Each structure stands twice: as C-alpha cells, then as structure tokens.
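Help needed: design a sequence for this.
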C-alpha cells in the first residue's frame, strides 16, 4: 500500500508532519480530515515493504487485504465512511438556498478563510440545514483536487451554467469572494424583482379573471336571451355585431376541444423550436430586439459583463483572458458572438474600446467609459462605474414595464366589456324602436 507524507495544520494551529498508509490520495485526505488536520502538503513517498514472516505472508496470501476493498467501497460511496458523506445523485436547491450558500461562502472567504476550511465550517453549522450536504460534497470534490466551479456543476444543477462560469472566473482571477458576493447580490436582485412582479400582477390577474367571467356570462346567458327576445319581436333584426358574436359563441361551443388541442400543440411546438440548438441564435437575437424585453436583456448583460470584467481586470488578470471568461459567462449566443469579435480584435492588438466600436453592438456611453479607463490606467474603476450606471438603467426599465402592466390590462378589459355592453344596449334600443314603429 502507498505511504503518503503529509504536512498539515491541526485544530490548535500547530504544524504536524508524518506519514500515513492509504490506498490512494483521496483516502489519505479523508484520513487527515478524520484526525482534524488541514493538509498543507501531501505527497506519495514510497510503497510499504512487506518483510513479514512466511506464516504471516501465507496468511495474507490466503485472505485478501481489506484495505483495497475499503478504498473501493469508499470511492463508490457505499462503505461505512463514505455512505453518509458521498450521496449519489445531484442535489436540488431552491433559489433562496443558492443565495444563502453564496452569501455564507463569500462572507467567510472575505474574512480570510481558504475555500476548503470555509466549506468545512458551513458543513458543521446546524442552522444551514440542507446546505450542509451541498457544502460537504463540494468540499470533498475540492479536497480531491477538482476545481470549485466544476464541483458546483457536479453537485447541483441549481447553480446553473452562469453561476459556474462566474465561479471559474473568480478562481482564475483570485477574486472568488468578490465574484460570489456580486453573484449573491445579483441573485437577490432577480428574486426581489420576481417578487415585485408577482405582487404587481396579483390585481391585474384578478381583473383578467373577473373580466373573463363577465364575458362568459355575456356570451352564454345574456346574449342568447337577447337574441331570443329580438327574434320573437315582429320586425326584429339582429345587428351585425350581435350576429358575429352569436356565430363566434356557437363556434366555440362546437369546436372548443379542437381549439384547445391547437393551442397546446402550438405551445409545445414553440418550446421544441426554441430549445433546438439550431434555432437558439434566432431566439436570442429576437430577445434583444423585442420592444419591451430587449432593453431589459441588454441592460442585464451590460451589468453582468461590466462587473465581471471589473473584478477580473482589478485582480490582475490579462485583458484577453478576462474577456474569454466573461464570454463563457454569457448565455445569450448573439451577445457571445459579439464578444468573440471583440476577443479577436483585442488578440490582434487593437484597443479594447476600439474593438467594442467595431462590433457596433455596444452603446456609446459604455465605450466612452471604457476609453476613459484605458487612458487613465484605471480600467477596472471605469468598468465598475459603468456597471453601476447600467444597473440603474436596468431597474428603471423593469419599473417602467411593471408600471405599464396595470393600465394596459385595464384598457384591454374595459374595451372588451364595454364593447359587449354597448352592443347589447344598442340591440335593445333597436328592438324598442322597432316595436314603436
């Protein structure tokens, strides 16, 4: 069995050195962890020599060594030690849990803890509940040599590709705590906006339901009664709009199931088309050009891009590498294509601001602030100021959309109910006029 030499820090803060027998490196790390030691250096020194007596050797030959079986069981997560610490399958997390995990980890990293001790501290905290399992599994993978971003992706799909890409950018720049703190702020902002949007839609949703109920009563009860009354009146004639509404009602009563099937099929077809990788570029381009959604998507990208670039550039990462990591953190393919153009231009030796101009996809204000940062040598500060500016623009765009929702729905419902009421009143007056004649 291999022998591993280690240098580790004990719980009291002292430095310990020694050797341990382990089947492989992960098992050696687990042994140190059970002893309460934080490894600083761990390397394989030699293989254990076997100089036992012949009787003991024969006994060992007759019975297989238990250590490899134990290591194999631990690797599969089915042994006594790995059973609780290595559960199978990804862990599902809700957005508040992702936010809490990010905030806790960023706070501990900002306080000076290294990644693995920070995850160990989260694993031992009772108030975190189910997040302890996430911290435990991520810590095991990080301790075994895996990148933090890759470990997040493997442990839980709830982190998402954007989160993992930003975590990779933080690892590369040495600013993981700053990246995680900004990601927690971003997730909290999105959650608050969704809550505000839901609250803003409660009253309009009530109006829509009430309007649909009134329209249903009009179509199924009032209009048929009025039609019967007019047709039974001598010389009574249905106005053309009433005839149209009656025809539409009869059509809906006869073929409602066909209409429902068509709507469901259309929704499924659209979803399949949107999820097709060949059509993703078209859909992402449409989202940027949509009347209300386009400015929100663009502002959100500018905030994310500028904040990521500011953190990476501020921590000494080369501009080209920072652009590549920012591109990897961008999910919109149309915007990613524009960043590829910028990366090619910067790789050819052009200035960052000039490369942004040549794409034609970035606003003049953003380019001007980047140019000022290049001229003053404080690119990270200029990028951070631009991110704050576009963060305010994003909040204004979302507030504008939510402010337009209420009057738009009111106008639509008032127009629908008012039209029906007007047609019915017109038909009644026409019937009274025919009776008087």
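Sure. Designed sequence:
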């Amino acid at each position: 069995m291999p022998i591993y030499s280690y240098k580790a820090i004990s719980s009291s803060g002292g430095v310990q050195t020694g050797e341990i027998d382990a089947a492989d490196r992960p098992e050696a790390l687990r042994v140190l962890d059970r002893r309460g030691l934080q490894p600083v250096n761990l390397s394989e020194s030699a293989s254990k020599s076997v100089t036992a007596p012949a009787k003991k050797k024969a006994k060992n030959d007759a019975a297989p060594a238990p250590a490899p079986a134990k290591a194999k069981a631990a690797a599969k997560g089915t042994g006594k030690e790995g059973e609780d610490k290595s559960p199978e399958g990804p862990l599902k997390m809700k957005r508040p849990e992702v936010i809490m995990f990010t905030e806790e980890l960023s706070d501990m990293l900002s306080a000076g803890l290294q990644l693995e001790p920070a995850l160990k501290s989260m694993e031992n905290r009772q108030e975190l509940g189910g997040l302890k399992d996430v911290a435990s599994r991520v810590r095991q993978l990080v301790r075994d040599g895996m990148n933090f971003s890759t470990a997040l992706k493997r442990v839980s799909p709830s982190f998402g590709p954007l989160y993992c890409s930003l975590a990779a950018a933080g690892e590369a720049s040495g600013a993981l705590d700053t990246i995680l703190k900004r990601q927690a702020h971003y997730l909290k902002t999105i959650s608050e906006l969704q809550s505000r949007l839901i609250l803003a839609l409660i009253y309009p949703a009530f109006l829509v339901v009430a309007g649909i109920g009134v329209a249903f009563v009009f179509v199924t009860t009032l209009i048929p009664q009025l039609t019967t009354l007019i047709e039974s009146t001598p010389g009574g004639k249905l106005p053309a709009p009433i005839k149209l509404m009656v025809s539409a009602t009869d059509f809906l009563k006869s073929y409602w199931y066909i209409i429902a099937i068509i709507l469901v099929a259309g929704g499924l077809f659209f979803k399949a088309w949107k999820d097709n990788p060949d059509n993703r570029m078209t859909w992402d381009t449409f989202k940027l050009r949509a009347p209300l959604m386009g400015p929100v998507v663009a502002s959100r990208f500018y905030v994310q891009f500028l904040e990521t670039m500011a953190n990476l550039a501020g921590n000494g990462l080369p501009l080209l590498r920072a652009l590549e990591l920012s591109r990897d953190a961008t999910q919109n393919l149309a915007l990613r294509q524009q960043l590829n153009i910028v990366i090619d231009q910067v790789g050819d030796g052009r200035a960052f601001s000039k490369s942004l101009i040549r794409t034609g996809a970035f606003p003049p204000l953003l380019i001007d602030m980047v140019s000022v940062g290049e001229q003053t040598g404080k690119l990270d500060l200029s990028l951070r100021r631009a991110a704050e500016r576009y963060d305010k623009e994003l909040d204004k765009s979302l507030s504008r959309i939510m402010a337009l929702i209420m009057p738009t729905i009111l106008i639509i419902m008032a127009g629908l109910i008012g039209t029906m009421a007007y047609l019915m009143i017109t038909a009644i007056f026409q019937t009274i006029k025919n009776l008087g004649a």
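The domain at 282-411 is CATH 1.20.81.30 (Receptor-associated Protein).
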